[in-house]
Amino acid sequence: MGHVVTWPGLYCPVEPAAHPMAEQAQIRSVEWSTRFELAPDPRRRARLAAAKLGPLAALSAPGCPPAWLQVLADMATWWTAFDDECDDGRSTDELGVLMWPVLRAFDAPASHAETGYAAALSDLRHRIAALATPELARQFTDGLRATLLTELVRTAQTSGGAEPTYDESLATRGRSSSPAWAFPLLWHAAGCRGSAEATLADPACGVLLDLTASIINWDNDFHSYDGDRADPGNGRNLVSQVRVRLGCGEQDAIAAAVALRNEVMALFLRLRDRLHHRADPDLRRFLAGLGHYLRGNLDWHELSGRYATTGISLVPEWERVWCDPRLRTPAISWWWDEADGS
Hints:
The N and C termini lie far apart (about 45 Å). Strands 1-2 form a two-stranded parallel ribbon. It is mainly alpha-helical. It has a single domain (about 10-340), classed as Farnesyl Diphosphate Synthase, CATH 1.10.600.10. It contains 16 helices and 2 strands. Helix 1 packs across helix 3 (about 55-60), helix 7 packs antiparallel against helix 9 (about 180-190) and helix 13 (about 240-245) crosses helix 14 (about 250-275).
């Protein structure tokens, strides 16, 4: 398709910030991924380097210690390489076989790793254990398990040429998706000293994590839309899902998808501010960190070679364009109930 579409502004009032060691983190992550052979051929190595995952970590956690910055950059590199494998047309059975050595690395980190992914993950777990508590290592492991399970579900949803419904797709974009492993790392990278267990288990905080993960995934969808439009694949891009749900044209679907995303961003900010008033110092640091995570992901799209969509801008104020009520399906409608009742 050669026609031009117009993108409404993405609402994000969080100010940009970046860690000063972004370039060092990028260089070291490329070296680390090469050492563990995460990208097995020159084309994939070049694509992984062009993703600029060191800057992603620097934009997402601008105030973290250097060791944590490198953990975040390396884990983002690991996940990006692995996610490319997941999206490489594998069946559910093939994906399960790919994931098995990784899952085994959780249970037997000292055993001989049989794949580059498992070996690299064992290295990361050892580094995380040296920087934080056993609780953090367990939370990270649990988060990555949830992410891998979600990827299996997403692959199963498209088996045999099927496509997930709008509601089914939304259900796999929340806190059990790829950001699940990032949340415990961001807790410690933000300088939180206490246990995250009780805080992250709080229902209101759980809603906030679901909102955060969904916004991250939707923003990625918007910035990859031009590429997805040229190669529709499984039709899981939010814009494509909204277009089917509403039975509308492309431009109207873009406007409706952005309206949903911006309203959810406003909900995130409202709930975050409410939690901030009753928060202890650790939770306040984490809440600020989630804001950096959302803004950093947006700014990263301008640097990364993974995203082809142009013409997307950020706006500091919400225009209060409400989303179509048909888009508030059961997968997400509870957000408003929980947030307003917290």
